[in-house]
Design brief:
Layout: E1 3-11, H1 15-22, H2 25-31, E2 38-42, E3 53-60, E4 63-75, E5 79-86, E6 91-101, E7 104-114, H3 120-146, E8 170-180, H4 182-192, H5 196-199, E9 204-205, E10 216-223, E11 226-240, E12 243-250, E13 256-266, E14 274-285, H6 295-312
Antiparallel strand pairs: 1-7, 2-3, 3-4, 4-5, 5-6, 6-7, 8-14, 9-10, 10-11, 11-12, 12-13, 13-14
């Protein structure tokens, strides 16, 4: 009997962008390089359309498979379906659904599969988990490819953080006074733009040079003897006489989905002006396991890290 399962992915990219990227043969091939997948017949590059087909050839479980699928339904930008018309499965149907949720896009992939090779137990224990990993791998690639430098939502350049609606995301802002005077300003602004807030809070930052928009880094932390990896991308940098800081967004593989900003500000440029350090975050559960189910623990870790951040520049 065919078995169905769904994978949900959240991104800040627009619905139309994710819909079109999901129909791209080139994006699919890039995301499946590990299995040596190729498009060998039908539509082999560009975007596939309603009624069109593509023949894929790839190696899975050490076996070379060939499968031809066709787009059998398409309603841009809300939904499309591709189905096997010839290949190794008794049934293979992949429904892609897209919907907007505030400033985010929710993408739901539902696969219905039945295999003549795997028995019922092997389908549940081997085939479905394997296909689920492939879908997550593909979607992580699409998210990174479609929105490599999204607009910032934590607005480090603004003194007042706009109270915009971000359904599903948790908003947090905390500040601490860290001193006054030109010497303190020079030191703290230099440190905030060189990742010192993270490194002094117990994180290891790959290539922690001066921040620049578009930088992609790997941040690591040790939690209960386990190394947690946090891929991020810098999306905004501000350097003004009374305000210096930056924001980064999380990339696929990060324990949470969202954005964080570190900002040093002062009332004016006089010697006696007070200097404040502010941390802003906008986060939601990561779309992938095990982090999605571990999100409550990630929230506790975030609160602990935030307290460390606020002490890091003193």
């Amino acid at each position: 009997m065919p078995r169905s399962f769904s994978v949900t992915t959240r991104t800040t990219a627009r619905v139309e962008e994710m819909f079109d990227a999901s129909l791209s043969i080139d994006h699919h091939l890039d995301s499946m390089r590990s299995s040596g997948e190729r498009a060998v017949a039908g539509v082999t590059s560009g975007q596939i359309g309603l009624g069109e087909s593509v023949t894929w050839r790839a190696r899975h479980f050490g076996i070379r498979f060939t499968m031809t699928s066709r787009i059998t339904a398409l309603d841009r930008p809300h939904r499309f379906v591709d189905e096997q018309v010839r290949g190794p499965f008794r049934v293979f149907r992949h429904e892609h659904v897209f919907r907007a949720a505030g400033s985010a896009t929710i993408m739901v992939d539902t696969l219905t599969v039945g295999s003549p090779i795997f028995g019922v137990l092997a389908e549940r224990l081997v085939l479905v988990p394997y296909l689920r990993r492939l879908i997550r791998q593909r979607n992580a690639h699409l998210v990174a490819a479609v929105a490599p430098t999204p607009p910032t939502h934590t607005h480090p350049a603004l003194a007042d953080w706009p109270d915009a609606s971000h359904p599903g995301f948790r908003r947090a802002e905390a500040s601490a006074r860290i001193g006054r005077g030109a010497a303190t300003w020079a030191r703290t602004t230099r440190e905030v733009l060189s990742w010192s807030v993270k490194t002094r809070s117990g994180f290891v930052v790959g290539s922690p040079g001066p921040v620049a928009v578009g930088d992609r880094l790997m941040i690591r932390a040790r939690v209960l003897g386990i190394t947690v990896t946090e891929p991020v991308e810098v999306v905004a940098v501000v350097s003004e006489p009374t305000r210096v800081g930056f924001a980064y967004r999380t990339l696929p593989g990060h324990p949470v989905l969202g954005e964080e900003a570190f900002i040093v500000s002062r009332d004016d440029t006089s010697e006696g002006a007070g200097i404040t350090f502010t941390v802003r975050s906008l986060t939601a559960p990561a779309p992938h396991q095990p982090w999605r189910i571990l999100h409550p623990a990630a929230r506790v870790a975030q609160r602990i890290a935030r307290r460390r951040y606020l002490r890091a520049l003193r």
